[in-house]
Amino acid sequence: MGALIGPNGSGKTTAFNVITGYQAADAGGLAFRGRAVRRPDPCRLQRLGLARTFQQPRVFPGLSALENVVLGRNQPWHALLRDRVPGPDRRRAEELLDEFGLAAHAHMPAGRLSYGQRKLLEFAGVLMAEPVLVLLDEPTAGVNPIMVKTMEDHIRRRHAQGVTFLIVAHEMQFVMSLCDPVIVLDHGRRIACGAPGEVQKDPRVLDAYLGD
Amino acid sequence: MHLFVQATIVGILFGGVYALIASGQAIIFGVTRTVNFAQAIFTILCAYLSYTLFTDFGIDPFLSILVLVPAMFAFGIGIYVLLLRRLSRSGAELGLLVLYGLGIGIQGVLDFVYKTNTQVITPSYANNSWTVAGYQIPEVRFFAFLLAVAVLGTLQLIRQRTKLGRALRATTQNPVASRLLGVDVERISAIGMGLGVAAAGAAGGVFGMILPFNGNTQYDLLSKLLSIAVLGGLLSMPGTIVAAVILGVVESVVAATISPDWSAFSFLVVLFAVLIIRPQGLFGRRLRGAL
Amino acid sequence: MTRPGPHSRIRPAGTIQAVAFVAVVAVLPLVTGQHWLVSLLVFTVMYAGLASAWNLLGGYAGYPALGHGAFFGVGAYAMAIGTSHLGVGGGYRPFVLIVPIAVGTALVVLPIARLLLRTRAAAFAVLSITLMFMVQTLAYNIRSLTGGSSGLIVPLAPFPAATFERPFYYAMAALLALTLAVCWVVRTSKLGLALNAVRDDEDRARGLGVQTELVKLVAFAVSAGLTAAFGAVWAYYISFLYPGFAIDPLLALGAILMAFLGGRRTLWGPVVGAALIGPAQQYFAYRFGASQLYLVAYAALFLLVIYLLPEGIVPSLARRLRRLRRASPAAATHDQVATDSIFSAGDLG
Description:
The structure holds 3 protein chains of 3 kinds. Chain B is 74% helix and 3% strand. By secondary structure, chain B is an all-alpha fold. In chain C, helix 2 packs across helix 11 (249-262), helix 3 runs parallel beside helix 5 and helix 12 (269-288) runs antiparallel to helix 13.
């Protein structure tokens, strides 16, 4: 359960974008599950088990919450003409929605959900494909404190089931209580990496946050 | 070879006119994020108005520009205020259809008023040309080119040197930030639209002198404008101008060396060919979003 | 959007709707003997089909295709050329050509679609129109094949004059039924879900592993093939082709108008739209001489629809019906939402 932190503009979201293929890298390489990935592409990485969420939750406003989650399950091309929401997928999606407290809104168009609900929905959606590594971009930003606790619980639960997380976050309490290692970026460079306790005391980190 | 160079010269001169009309379209895209599918019919509208002013009142088309440009400027503002402004909430994609529909409506009116025979504006100097170094330079096209340069130059001055121009460029780049900085985005967008339509108006008269036209010509011109827009990148002014001149030359050379029937087609082939390599056109950036 | 309640794909209400529809459509031309009326029906059914076929790409996937006139024209010319070589036989032979024309067009379109689908929104609209102009130019210029601007004659069908229109009506109706069936299969399948996701947020869909390239391509090709099929029947019906007429920019505009009016996200929306606009269109054409003011009336109608009914009739009516149902106590016990209304065949999907 890693965290990626750093002052504003240090390149956290950019790092996510480069890793998942939304932006092209200038230099360097990427390896996932032991294999080099030469040209990261969101679609291919997703099939390999890498998933991510966005700072502004991206859901499909015209589709129902249930469909949003079901979409996460990949289909081979020859299954395209089968049921829109097949039984087994539906049940699993309903479980996920229930777990995240969204069951009552299963058939509501996602566009009508609140900000916090959309964040949860986005999270539920990526979990549908049972990813191995999940990149969470500010899962608790702009969300009320109760929701922060809810998010934390969900992340812990999934982590216990074996999912690896890399979280970009600003709330220090959230990061320090949940994550290890903590990686600190500043101006696009990694300046520290280690257990929360060490990082908190590292002078370079303090300098990056408090300096200028 | 001589033919080739001759055709290139003529192509560059007319390319200037295309550049003028297409630049108007680019400005409109900048402020409304909508491709103006009615830009061609606006040009034809002014061609017809120019024609009427010439045949009924004896006003030279180059002079009637002084009247038509302000009129089209007001017209453009009117279109923005009445039609496009209320769409910004439901999505600029609808604007495309609205302008397309408007264009068809205007064509209907023109067909009704002027009937569908092709017209051409023929002042006394219509067929004059100079001979320079063995090549013919048609007078009308030459002055049309100068006109295009003058108007484009003025537009560029406005955009670069005036407060209005700065506001225009800011709104094009980032309407939200502009609004926060105190720019009246609605007003600027309306003015931008007015400028864009006025550009079409300026070109209308000269267009009518060079090419025979009727209501249906708008489709031919539209396809060329669209090719220029996509090729040059919808937001790039230099891109638009370069694309316009290139396509003017291609069209002219193909007409002279192969056949006029295929000249418009060659526009489209070039467009397709470029897009195979670069989906964003020569100078543009990738666009997002669906209808 | 999926319906709550029973989970089977084929709903009894839907089957009733379909059967009722087929019955009505089958009987309509027999009701009247007036030629102009039956001809009106032929065109209306055709527009319903064209609007529905367009909707696969334009509504479900959200790609603004403005150049469908190209496919219609290709189908028309293909039919003309085909019948000039094969003759019309007893009159039904040309109808057989529809299948290879539709399939052929869909296949030929694939590489072109691949190219076009690399762009989106405005650029895509522009390219689709550009494609249409290219096809039109080809039709004008390759005179040996298409007769150019002199036009091309399709051999006249040897049907009895009294019921001349009927075979064409049933051909169009059959195609409409096919198109609606295709739309239904798409909507209720993963393909439809994927297309809707593309419409809402294509990049995110890709990021979630949805095969966006494949589904867009399928929607495009099927849409084009069906449009060509209608063009083929049309060519046989009117017997004379002219490039500006067969490859018409107004065709896509009409389809868009009908889909918008009826509801782009629904199954029956385009049909409802066509049922309302089709006759209006024909009326304008006869009254105003198929030009000039016809364009003005058309444009006015188009703008009105876009401004007043951006979502379309069907969804608005569906919502109203739902509100009425919720007011009744019976509705409170039901999980389902307006299942039995003809308009509820998937309001947001």
